[in-house]
Amino acid sequence: MADVATFPTDCPACHGQGFFTYDVDMDDPRFGRAFPCSCLQGRSGEETLRLLIGHSGLEEAGLTDKTFAAFRISDSNRQAFLSAQRFAQNPQGWLLLCGGVGRGKTHLLAAIGNEMLARGLPVVYANAPRMLGRLKATFDARNVGELSFEERFQGLKQVNVLLLDDLGAEYATEWAQVTFFELLDHRYSNHLATAIASNLKRSSFDGRLGSRLQEAIYVELSGPDYRQILGRQQQGDLWPTA
Fold it and tell me: Can you give the residue ranges of every domain in the chain?
């Protein structure tokens, strides 16, 4: 198995992100766009794509096979599917996908990311509870040589497109609420594209975070739990006709 390519973490320009953004006014054509760092020069297109995929978090999460073509469209999820496609084609603003377990929210987030990666655009997928766990782990003195809290957090705050999955699953503690608000407030204030999935309805988020989510394109997914249906299919049951 080939070694996984990595960005040079000591790069002073991108700090291991592979891409950087300019701190410019909103009317500047460079605003909100990511530019390949000079540390990528000399790499082949294939190697750069491997870097992007490895950095995206989609491969680690086992989601590189989740595409729009592989998504099962139904009347209950068609609007979410179309909204996710539009976001992938033109990643601007915020998209909030809400619905119960097994409705396809994670699949659509991953499909957005995989389509953008295919076009050579940087994107990061993060599962909210795991993200918090990794941020907390940076406070452990035994994790010598690992990225610091600030380095991990800045990567999430600055990436051009963030796909944040399962928001609300670990939202009870004050530290979690402050962390998520700081992350999303930064992205809101800097007009950075963000797609979010949650089992909770938007009305469940109150306070400052809720106010930020009010700005998002909001789509609820209903219908059956497709994970259970796929499980029954694997046991020989038929896909429901209604």
Answer: 58-234
Strand order in the sheet with 94-99: 124-127, 161-165, 193-198, 94-99, 217-221
CA distance 227 to 107: 11
Contact 210, 229 (CB under 8 A): no
Residue with tokens 């938007």: 202
Given the structure tokens 């998504």, which residue do they identify? 71
Q: Which fold has domain 58-234?
A: Rossmann fold (3.40.50)
DSSP E strands, 154-222 = 161-165, 193-198, 217-221
Distances (CA, A) of 14 to 21, 185, 232: 9, 22, 47
Distance of alpha carbon 45 from alpha carbon 50, whole angstroms: 9
Q: How far apart are CA 194 and CA 164, in angstroms?
A: 7
List the beta bridge partners of residue 126.
164
In this structure, the number of other CB atoms found within 10 A of the CB of residue 227 comes to 12
pLDDT of 24-39, one tens digit each?
666 666 655 566 666 6
Residue owning tokens 């007009």: 191
- Determine contact, residues 163/125, Cβ cutoff 8 Å: yes
Sign of CA dihedral 163, 166, 172, 173: negative
Cα 194 to Cα 181: distance, rounded to the nearest angstrom: 13
- What's the CA gap between 222 and 217, in Å, rounded? 17
Q: What is the pLDDT of residues 86-139, one digit of tens each?
A: 999 999 999 999 999 889 999 999 999 999 998 888 899 999 999 998 888 877
pTM (2 d.p.): 0.76
